[in-house]
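tl;dr need the bound structure. longer version: we got a ligand (adenosine monophosphate) that a collaborator sent over and nobodys looked at where it sits. i said id run it. heres the input, straight from their email, havent touched it
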Amino acid sequence: MPRPKANAKNMPAFKKAPERRSAKAVPRLLGMKDIVPSEYRYFSAVSNKAASLAELYSFNAIKTPAIESADLYKKSTRHNNDKELYSLDCEKGENGVLRPELTQGILRAYIENNFSELPQPVRLYSIGSVFRKEKMQTGRYRESNQFNLEVIGEDKPMAEALLIAAAYNFFQDLQANFQIQINSLGKADCRKEYIGKLNSFYKERGRRSKLCNNCKKYLGKNMMALLDCKEDACQHLLHEAPQIADCLSDESRNHFAKVLEYLDELGIPYNFNPYLVRGLSYYNDTVFEFWPLNDEGVASSKLALAGGGRYDNLVESLGGRPTPSVGLAIGLERVVAKVKDRLTLPNFKEEVIFLAQLGDQAKIKSLILFEELRRAGFNVRQSFSTDSLKNQMEEATRLNAKVSLILGKKEVMDETIMLRDMESGVQETVAFKKIKDKLEKKVNRKEGVIYG
Ligand code: AMP
């Protein structure tokens, strides 16, 4: 079989093969996406970056189930109205759904594990997939992966500033071009007044007929959803619509002013967007999104990279104590698509150590060495699928290994190992005990950070 050619980034070329599916081949479901190896390395670089940044900002990791009770999402009208939930057959009496967001599961875990007894706020982060029966569109999947940050139990505007700063630095590090959109939705009273104004505005002659069919259905029922619509016609009408800023209470106005003041102090640019509402009904006061900028520097809401806001009543509505909180969700697929071309992945050429072995005894010994080197932070590779030295050396070349370590019967007996410099081809015999010291001088160790 011809060996796959290495591409520029030393990865096997997982090229899209011409369609050769038999009629019996089972296809991917609509809205689902494979993250193939050539893309997975970007996906994992972005996820690792997300996790290390979260730890740096003192967030603790949490993993919650992908299946949760449908009751958790009752307070989030978008997921109810749009019928975007995947329902599941669970145990008798249990109404399960695939989670459409991470936040509610994290809050359920906060309540269930009595995290309210811990010093507040509790900062949690999570990375996992979410499932939504979305309308099919580019960059919109039915299963996608999110990176969430939640600051639970904090009413001060500093919480929003901290979350926005964390996400801002995440995108800056990845060299993404983006713009922060920010608005305040105030409290329930402000929104009631605002919804009244919106109702009057859209009822005015001629406006109703310009709305998309979906928005026509929301009229009078979920007026805020109209502001969130991405259809051009609805976006167009928006520019004349009343602004919620005019309905904010003094308390909400002051809170929002403080958030903006902190962002200014941190040197974080933002765009005050009076029509940003986010589609979820549980937010109050601050809401924000990170929109990608195109090559002309124009921001677009269509493929938002991240979104979040304050949800002071959600924990209580899920059965917990009153717990003001703020959260943020970053869409990993969209981030990867945006930054892929700019992401510098590690140059494996300098780092890879290839471990080749001949014979059973050597295999056992090389497995032990493999673990030892891996734990010491070396990027060590081994071919577990072939015993032929020729094939193993070909694999080492394909991986652009800096050195190969060859362990045969003789080396096992002598307690040595053969070290081959893959660039010069020079080989030397090294005492087994000294191999780690030798490699430390010769090869760069992986430092845990795998993005550029
Ligand atoms: P949301 O809470 O709906 O704003 O989602 C948070 C982030 O997840 C968004 O800003 C997007 O980056 C991403 N996202 C949301 N829905 C999808 C989807 N259907 N497919 C891919 N990414 C999505």
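gonna send this back to them w/ a short note. Confidence is low (pLDDT under 50) at residues 1-14, 447-452.
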